[in-house]
Amino acid sequence: MGRAIALALAREGAHIVCADLKPEAAPHSFEEDKHIPTHDAISNNGGVAEFRKCDMGKPEEIYELRFHKIDILINNAGLWLPLRDFVEETDDMWDRMMGINGKGTAVSMRQTIKQFLKQPIDPISGSRGRIVNIASSAGIVAVAREATYGASKAAISMLTRNAALDHAKDYINVNAVCPGVVRTALSSTNFQDPKIISEMKKGTPWPRLGEPKDIANVVVFLCTDEAVWVTGQNIAVDGGFTVGIPL
């Protein structure tokens, strides 16, 4: 999902910094060109991109990501663990999930907002900067066997609203996209199980499951001048998953 978002923003002229654990794409991802690191894929197509090592579970590494100017922050890094009943989850799982999905997102947002406040308001867009957090439809409706994951994503959704409320006066846009079932490396174990795929399709009204580009398209919109009056929103991009169960 992060790769699709980075490529889509680069096509619109953004200079991209890919901050991740490592430059290589996950070996179990579905992209045909996954052997090419995202920042290289962007550069090979005439864009501007670089890679920086960052573990979202380690705030000190986020603090080291310093920039003289930043226009857009996409908080896409996250942790998901295989499905299990809540009683089978552990304290370590809770700490890791909340540390990466919750605290990591909060730290990167604060650091970015501090930089935004040093920058003038863009005379064309009327914004100082945009933040788009990747939350989840699992943070909107309960999904069986995803208790801690859902709680961490619900935290991101509310954090998005609170930060947007605090910093609307500063001309800073903060929004979140809440994906439904999307075929990514993170969820690859689900997409390797025909029974799980069948169940996921039953819960998604749209006739197909999601692809990373579905999320990237909405993220790009939220970063455009046309979306400058949109802030504090959690936009479900889920094929109708959060609307209800289809017949």
Automatic annotation (TrEMBL):
The protein, known as: Putative short chain dehydrogenase/ reductase
Keyword set, alphabetical order: NADP, Oxidoreductase
Highest rank taxon of the organism: Eukaryota
Coiled-coil annotated spans: none
Signal peptide per UniProt: none
Source species: Glonium stellatum
Keyword NADP: yes
The family this protein is said to belong to: Belongs to the short-chain dehydrogenases/reductases (SDR) family.
Pfam families per UniProt: adh_short_C2
GO MF annotation, one: oxidoreductase activity
PROSITE patterns in UniProt: ADH_SHORT
